[in-house]
């Protein structure tokens, strides 16, 4: 029974060390390069894993939280909110321009109507 526990413990240390080397950023390894550490851990299972944990593992082993590739909800997405604000401004500006255009056309019709009335009044005189 003790042999089985020892074999399982050795296998766990080996697998954990190998996975840890694989998941570590290549720029964060100490001592030798990441591919060299992989070879050491693969060819010297127990000794390689022990060396990795003692000499090769980065000092700061806490993983830095990575931002999500996309926010979970639209109201959490700053780009969505920014685009929403831009769309709102563009729509308000379009409505303002439409109102100004309508006012300008109304003034032009009024002026044309007055000029026609003036032209028709001159002809009769």
From TrEMBL:
Keywords: Cell membrane, Coiled coil, Membrane, Transmembrane, Transmembrane helix. Its main location: membrane. Residues 13-57 form the Cardiolipin synthase N-terminal domain. It comes from the Bacteria. Residues 83-117 form a coiled coil. Pfam families: PLDc_N (PF13396). GO terms for cellular component: plasma membrane. The chain crosses the membrane at residues 36-55. It is found in: Cell membrane. It is a multi-pass membrane protein. This is Cardiolipin synthase N-terminal domain-containing protein. It comes from Arthrobacter bambusae.
């Amino acid at each position: 029974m003790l042999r089985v526990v020892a074999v399982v413990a050795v296998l766990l240390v080996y697998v954990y060390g190998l996975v840890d080397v694989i998941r570590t950023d290549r720029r964060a390894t100490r001592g030798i390069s990441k591919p060299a550490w992989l070879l050491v851990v693969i060819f010297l299972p127990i000794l390689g894993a022990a060396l990795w944990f003692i000499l090769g593992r980065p000092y700061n082993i806490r993983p830095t939280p990575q931002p999500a590739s996309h926010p979970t909800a639209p109201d959490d997405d700053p780009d969505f909110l920014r685009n929403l604000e831009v769309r709102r401004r563009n729509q308000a500006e379009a409505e303002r321009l439409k109102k100004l255009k309508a006012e300008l056309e109304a003034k032009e019709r009024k002026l044309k109507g007055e000029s026609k009335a003036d032209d028709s009044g001159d002809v009769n005189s």
